[in-house]
Amino acid sequence: MRYVGMMPLGDHAIMVKLGERPEEAFPSIVTLLAYLDDHPLPGQVEIVPGYTTVVIYYDPAEIEALLHSPGSYHTKSICPYDYVSEQLHNLIQTLDARDAPPAREVEIPVCYGGEYGPDLDDVARRNGLKSEEVIAIHCSAAYVVHMIGFAPGFPYLGGMDPRIATPRKAVPRTSVAAGSVGIAGEQTGVYPIETPGGWNVIGRTPLKLFRPERDPPSLLRPGDIVRFKPITEDVFARWEAGT
Amino acid sequence: MMITVHKPGLLTTVQDRGRTSYQRYGVVVGGAMDLFAYTCANILTGNDPSAAALEMTVIGPKLSFEQDALVAICGADMKPTIQGEPVPMWRPVYIKAGAMLEFQSASHGIRAYLAVSGGIHVEQRMGSRSTYLRAGIGGYEGRALAEGDQLTWGRSTSVSMAIRRSLLEWDGELQHADQDWSGGSYIAARWSISPWVLPRYEEHAQVRFLPGPHHGMFREESLTDLEHGTYQVGAQSDRMGYRLEGKRLMLRERQELYSEPVTAGSVQVPPDGRPIILMADRQTTGGYPVIAQIISVDLPLVAQIPPGGRLSFVRVDIREAQRLLLEERRLLAAISASVRMRVQHA
Predict the structure, then answer these.
(1) Between B27, B210, B258, which is nearest A11 by CB?
(2) Which residues on chain B are in Cβ contact (under 8 Å) with A84?
(3) Chain A interface includes B2 (CB < 8 A)
(4) What is the rounded CA–CA span in Å between residue B10 and residue A131?
(5) Residue of A15, A49, A64 with shortest CB distance to B24
(6) What confidence tens digit (pLDDT) does each residue in B260-275 have?
(7) Confidence band (pLDDT; 50, 70, 90) for B145?
């Protein structure tokens, strides 16, 4: 595997850029994330993936202690950042993105249109499609979870068909319900919590994407593959009732 | 073991060192804004350095203690009193049962920390007791304290017990000698963290930064403006971020960026050119270019700047930033060791 560059993100994190574009960086990001979860670097605190980068948070004091421990072959003039970047430089060369762990597939049931998806018809009209066609296109793709951010449990999904791309609403809604499935430009996503937002809402899932009482607190993880499946209002209601 | 909130103050929340390991799920780190003052308060009460404490903002609360308690107050000066008697900061204080601890408006900074030996006891959520206000998670019912709330504290460590004993022994000696002392509702240690090592909270702070990941994408004059200009902290500044007013910072060319991880101290620049310093409750990722990254040891100074206050940026390199960070760790370790030495010899 190769990387584009490394840089400090402040004094206790390092950002490794693994590609110029998300699709290109994704396999390497998933591979590095999986490897570091299983084989943490000395001083590693946590790892956060982005669209084209991975950020590794570390404890400089732990690395400093290591550099000064008896028998350490490192010259004392290097700082903790130098040590971490050297470790990563060496590690990344030995990894192969083809060895990435198999992705987990998660199916997300969605009740499209109607009260749950007030913008479905608009998305169809703007793209010269029927509403059923928008649903069929939205459900046919396998989406990759590049990263979780913006709000707890919010997935940044890649892989939406450009035929249903729709610009953000000119006037954002003051409140979008948790579980709302939306389209903004060429992106699609699911709102994990109720929040204001400008996405075109085409449906809603009864699944909870953020569940702070569980570990992990997010239904989705970076690297997952997501598929949407249409459900009826009745199924939605039963799902919500927990039956 | 109960604290009752009589007046909540402007924004009083339970905070600890923050929530790590969940950023990849979009969960904000949060935690104390001024980690130095917060850590000192814990050290002075003999607590684990990541025990939960109260973070008080701009106007402090009024609290009563149902039992005797060992506390420490660090950070901004909120003119704390116990039963009306001024109480010194940056040192252990033994409060007697029934006493009322009251804070006023802050001067020299805007955030103060109250640690209680044993730590404020609330349920841990995702490994932390910090209050995550926007999601309503953690801390005391996921929100800021309100009038009538009742807090409890946890079990004291052996160091807390030793500090307590040393204060009580001193109190006994004084009473035996029939000396006049501070009124009887509290006992403050005769020693404190040396004022020499305490941060100076200024309304115009000099903060040091490292170039951020997108530093090179900015215009030459914007990079000069950042280093030589003065920026004012806007009114819409909170635990999530500080909005700055000053010379606009512009990219060489407009560019849409992919969202990438950001952290406390990241200085983001939205298209309007007005920088935002991300603070404790920032989002885990962001899509705006990051021009600079304020170094860890200077973030407490930022946390203490009031709205309307100013800051200037001074560039350092990663070696210097990490040298300063390690130096601060050593200082905290030395403070911790000297507290233990004092009370063991008492």
Answers:
(1) B210
(2) none
(3) no
(4) 50
(5) A49
(6) 999 999 999 999 999 9
(7) very high
> Between A and B, how many CB-CB pairs are < 8 A?
140
Q: Cβ contacts (< 8 Å) between A222 and chain B: which residues?
A: 24
Identify the band that residue B132 occupies on the pLDDT scale cut at 50, 70 and 90: very high
Alpha-helical runs (H) found in chain B: 35-44, 158-176, 220-228, 299-303, 318-344
Which residue's entry shows tokens 């309503």? B136
Given pLDDT bands bounded at 50, 70 and 90, which one contains residue A76? low
Structure tokens at B168: 């009580």
Read off the amino acid at residue B203.
Answer: E
Looking at domain B204-315, its CATH architecture is Beta Barrel (2.40)
CATH architecture of A105-241: Beta Barrel (2.40)
Q: Do B259 and A156 touch (CB under 8 A)?
A: yes
Dist. CA B251–CA B261, nearest whole Å: 20
| Calpha distance B334→B323 (Å, rounded) | 16
Residue-level pLDDT at A138: 97
Q: Where are the domains of chain B?
A: 2-199, 204-315
Contact A11 B321 (CB under 8 A): yes
B31-59 per-position pLDDT tens digit? 999 999 999 999 999 999 999 999 999 99
Q: Supply the ipTM of this predicted assembly.
A: 0.95
Q: In this model, does residue B182 exceed pLDDT 60?
A: no
For an interface test with A, the pick among B215, B260, B262, B298 (most A C-beta atoms closer than 10 Å) comes out as B260
Q: Where in chain A is the domain with CATH 3.30.1360.40?
A: 5-99
Average pLDDT over residues A207-235: 95
* A37 vs B contacts (CB less than 8 Å): none
- What dotted CATH number matches A5-99? 3.30.1360.40
Parallel/antiparallel/unpaired status of strands A105-112 and A143-148: unpaired
Q: Which helix (H) or strand (E) holds A140?
A: helix A131-140
pLDDT score of B176 more than 80: no
**A55 to chain B nearest CA, in Å?**
7
- Asked if A12 lies within 8 A of B21 by C-beta distance, the reply is no
Helix axes A60-67, B318-344, angle to 10 degrees: 90
